[in-house]
Design a protein that fits this description.
With about 475 residues, the protein is mostly helical. It contains 24 helices and 3 strands. Among the domains are: about 250 residues, no CATH class; about 80 residues, no CATH class. A hairpin with a 3-residue loop joins β2 and β3. The chain is globular, with a radius of gyration of 25 Å.
Length: about 475
């Protein structure tokens, strides 16, 4: 019941934002332009971020984005900067909103049995986005009172909760989607046709799209409830038949079930976030007995052992995984992190440098290498790593703090105070931020760029402007 309410609220959230924004951004019955799409898409995305409905894990987001980018390279895409995000929901669903925003639920990633199935869903949603299906539905909704409909749905969404609110919400969403935001079978056919062509061109196993729909049908049969994906994407049986015919007549390529790789490892990032670690530990231990040389199983078990404080066992399993996959940057990085944690910074550097040589653009590896250098007293090397990251948001890390500490060790007091000021400002600690900014002013000449920036920060804080909110602590 709780999950059903959450799914309903997500659907309501989608419709509420779309219609409220239409009232604000465009006149009723006006053409829904590309610029309108961008504004609506961004506003919707910002609201999801604001309400913490986006699952933030850099590795997982990079993985989904790599698949999406590979597929986009095969398309004549709509004129948008596409963004791929993971919704923090166990419901098996995916959707595209105006402006090139593609959303994949955690539950759908976990339900995928191989990368081709996941890529097929992403390709289908890109098909919806490129064909501008939501925009075309909105443009045809001219007989509706958008403001009235938005108010009704907003009233249900913003109500006091409880069973009555949930029931009203479900009724409102059903009515709204029937009249306005429900994909037609023609939309689904076009998205399937486009998506299948993208999927095949990217080199994936074409039947992955069909296999995923069959999984959804099986889940519906076993659970006696319809998965969210089937609710938002109608005509499943017809879609399976249609795509089966396309594959038989047009797409004879076998394709690959995995191209980017590591789906199992990515799924573990979700499972570890929400599962009982002891239960997961037992499951993985049993799985390894059947498949002792499975790198992903070894990796996942080591991650859990590390979280459970079983550092030696974790290191042993990482080392075995590394012997089977010596160029695996994630394994090298995690071994390095264990050595940092156990006070062996020099050993950590060896592994992290190997990982960095494999992927110099991996921010997590750069951050870990900076920590290893800092722990071994190589502060200039640490600073070089941190400076590469200073304009980036990292999972569970405020780079300003690391910069402040490192500049302090190098006796660059002005820079240290400046970055401490930025850190505390972002944390919402006004007095601490003001102290460090005012101290930093003593080290930068009046009129310099840094002096000007500090004075502006002080002015903002002292004028009671709302400080930059603390960075969301992202999940690993």
């Amino acid at each position: 019941m709780l999950m059903r309410k959450f799914i309903q609220n997500q659907h309501i959230c989608f419709v509420v934002f779309i219609f409220i924004l239409l009232c604000r951004v465009t006149p009723c019955f006006a053409e829904f332009t590309l610029e309108d799409e961008r504004k609506v898409g961004k506003e919707f995305y910002d609201k999801l971020i604001e309400n913490k409905l986006i699952f933030k894990n850099k590795n997982l987001n990079d993985y989904i984005t790599k698949i999406g980018t590979l597929i986009l390279e095969q398309t004549q895409k709509a004129p948008f900067d596409f963004r791929f995000s993971i919704v923090d929901s166990d419901a098996i669903n995916a959707f595209a909103t105006p402006g090139g925003y593609i959303y994949i639920n955690k539950g759908l990633i976990l339900a995928s049995e191989n990368e081709a199935e996941l890529a097929g869903v992403i390709a289908h949603e890109i098909g919806h986005a490129n064909a501008r299906h939501v925009a075309s539905i909105i443009e045809k909704s001219q007989k509706l009172s958008i403001a009235t409909l938005a108010a009704i749905i907003a009233g249900a969404f913003l109500g006091g909760g409880g069973e009555a609110t949930a029931a009203i919400a479900a009724f409102s969403v059903a009515g709204a989607s029937t009249l306005t935001l429900k994909y037609t079978r023609a939309h689904e056919e076009e998205a399937d046709r486009l998506g299948l062509s993208y999927l095949v061109s990217a080199g994936y196993y074409p039947a992955g799209m069909i296999d995923f729909l069959k999984i959804m049908k099986q889940n519906e049969f076993l659970s006696k409830t319809m998965p969210s994906y089937l609710l938002t994407h109608p005509g499943t049986d017809d879609r399976i038949y249609y795509m089966d015919s396309l594959i038989l007549t047009q797409y004879h390529q076998k394709g690959k079930k995995n191209i980017i790789g590591n789906l199992s490892r990515m799924q573990s990032l979700i499972s570890l976030d929400q599962s009982d670690l002891d239960t997961k530990y037992r499951e993985l231990t049993e799985s390894l007995k059947k498949d002792p040389d499975n790198v992903d199983l070894l990796y996942n078990l080591a991650v859990i052992e590390d979280q459970l404080g079983q550092t030696s066992a974790a290191l042993q399993h990482y080392q075995k995984a590394l012997s089977l996959s010596p160029r695996d940057e994630d394994i090298l990085k995690n071994i390095g992190l264990i050595y940092i944690k156990t006070g062996k910074a020099d050993l950590a550097q060896d592994y992290l440098l190997r990982a960095s040589n494999l992927n110099p653009d991996n921010d997590e590896i750069t951050l870990a290498l900076g920590k290893a250098y800092f722990a071994s007293g190589k502060y200039q090397n640490a600073l070089d790593c941190y400076l590469k990251l200073k304009d980036k948001l990292l999972d569970n890390e405020d780079i300003n703090y690391s910069l402040a500490m490192t500049y302090g060790k190098l006796n660059h007091k002005g820079e240290s105070h400046y970055y401490f000021g930025l850190f505390f400002k972002k944390e919402g600690k006004k007095e601490s931020a003001l102290f460090h900014f005012k101290e930093a002013l003593n080290y930068f000449p009046q009129g310099s760029e840094r002096n000007t920036a500090i004075n502006q920060a002080i002015k903002d804080l002292e004028s009671n402007k709302k400080p930059t909110p603390p960075m969301d602590r992202q999940k690993r």
